[in-house]
C-alpha cells in the first residue's frame, strides 16, 4: 500500500471552492494538511449575477473547524484585481504559494443561434481568461516553490455536447492554454495538467436540459464531487511529475484523455481525389496502426 500522501505546508489556491467540486477539493486538501485559499465569488450558475451568502467563508470555516488552515477570498477572477486578490491572500496569510486549482465555472445550455455575443464572452472570461489571470499573478510565486503545480478544469463538452458551443468552446480554449503552459513551465519545474470532471452538482443541474432524466439521476446519486477531488489533489502533490495531461474523472473512474495522430497516408503528389480514395486510411485507428500520443515534449511546432 502507498503511504498516505501528506500536504503539510503546501499552500493551494482553489477557485470556485465554495460549492460542488471546488468545495470537495478544498476540504480534502485541508484535511491532509494543506493551507487552502478558498476562492469563490458566489455567482449564479450562468455567471450573470452574484447570489446571497458567502460560500467561500463557509468552506474556510468548515476547514478551520476540522483543525485545518484556510482563508476565504470572495473576488472576481475575470478581473486582474480579483485574480490577484487570491494570490495576495495566499502570500499575506501563509507566506508562499505552491499550487493553483482553477475550478471556477459557469454554464447555461442553449442552442448556438440563441447564445448572444456577451454570453460567449462571459464564458471565455470565466473559463479561460480567469484562470490565465490567476496564473499570471501566481506565476512568480509558483516559480519560488520547490514543487509548483497547476490543475485546470476543462470539460468533455469541448469534444462536443448539444447546446454547449459557448461552454465547450471556452473549455477548449483552456485545454489549449494548459498544453502550452505545460511546455513553458517544464524547465522551471511547474507541472500543469487538467481534469475533465463529471459530478451531480448545481452546474450539472443547470445543464440538465441537455441530458436525459436517467443520466441526471445517475449523476445526482452516483457521481459525487468527492469522487473528483482525489485526482486533483494528487496532481498538486510534489510526488506527481506528469505534465500537459488531461484526466477524465467521474464516479470513481479515472482515465487519461489523449490526443492522437493516426498513421494516415503520405503522398507528396496529393490530390483531392487521393484524399477521397484514402479517406478510410486517414481516419483509421487500428491495432496495426497504433496512434502516437502527442505529449508535451513531442508537440509539433
UniProtKB/TrEMBL annotation:
The keyword Lipid biosynthesis does not apply. Keywords: Oxidoreductase. The keyword Ligase does not apply. Pfam families: adh_short. SUPFAM superfamilies: NAD(P)-binding Rossmann-fold domains (SSF51735). InterPro entries: NAD(P)-bd_dom_sf, Peroxisomal_Beta-Oxidation, Sc_DH/Rdtase_CS, SDR_fam. Belongs to the short-chain dehydrogenases/reductases (SDR) family. This is SDR family NAD(P)-dependent oxidoreductase. It comes from Gordonia westfalica. The lineage of its organism: Bacteria, Bacillati, Actinomycetota, Actinomycetes, Mycobacteriales.
Amino acid at each position: 500500500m502507498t503511504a498516505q500522501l501528506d500536504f503539510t505546508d503546501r499552500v493551494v489556491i482553489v477557485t470556485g471552492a465554495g460549492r460542488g467540486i471546488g468545495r470537495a477539493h478544498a476540504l480534502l486538501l485541508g484535511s491532509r494538511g494543506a493551507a487552502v485559499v478558498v476562492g469563490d465569488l458566489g455567482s449564479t450558475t450562468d455567471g450573470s449575477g452574484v447570489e446571497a451568502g458567502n460560500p467561500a467563508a463557509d468552506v474556510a470555516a468548515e476547514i478551520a473547524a476540522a483543525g485545518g488552515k484556510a482563508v476565504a477570498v470572495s473576488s472576481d477572477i475575470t478581473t486582474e484585481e480579483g485574480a490577484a486578490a487570491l494570490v495576495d491572500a495566499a502570500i499575506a496569510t501563509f507566506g508562499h504559494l505552491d499550487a493553483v486549482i482553477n475550478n471556477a465555472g459557469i454554464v447555461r445550455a442553449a442552442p448556438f443561434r440563441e447564445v448572444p455575443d456577451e454570453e460567449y464572452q462571459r464564458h471565455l472570461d470565466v473559463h479561460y481568461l480567469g484562470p490565465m489571470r490567476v496564473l499570471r499573478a501566481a506565476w512568480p510565486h509558483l516559480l519560488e516553490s520547490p514543487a509548483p503545480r497547476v490543475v485546470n478544469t476543462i470539460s468533455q463538452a469541448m469534444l462536443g455536447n448539444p447546446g454547449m458551443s459557448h461552454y465547450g468552446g471556452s473549455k477548449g480554449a483552456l485545454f489549449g492554454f494548459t498544453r502550452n503552459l505545460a511546455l513553458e513551465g517544464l524547465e522551471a519545474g511547474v507541472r500543469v495538467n487538467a481534469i475533465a470532471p463529471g459530478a451531480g452538482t448545481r452546474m450539472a443541474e443547470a445543464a440538465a436540459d441537455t441530458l436525459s432524466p436517467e443520466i441526471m439521476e445517475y449523476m445526482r446519486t452516483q457521481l459525487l464531487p468527492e469522487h473528483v477531488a482525489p485526482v486533483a489533489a494528487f496532481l498538486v502533490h510534489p510526488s506527481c511529475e506528469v505534465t500537459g495531461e488531461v484526466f477524465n474523472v467521474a464516479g470513481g473512474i479515472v482515465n487519461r484523455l489523449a490526443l492522437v495522430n493516426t498513421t494516415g497516408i503520405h503522398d507528396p503528389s496529393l490530390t483531392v481525389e487521393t484524399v477521397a480514395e484514402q479517406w478510410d486510411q486517414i481516419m483509421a485507428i487500428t491495432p496495426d496502426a497504433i496512434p502516437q500520443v502527442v505529449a508535451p515534449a513531442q508537440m509539433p511546432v
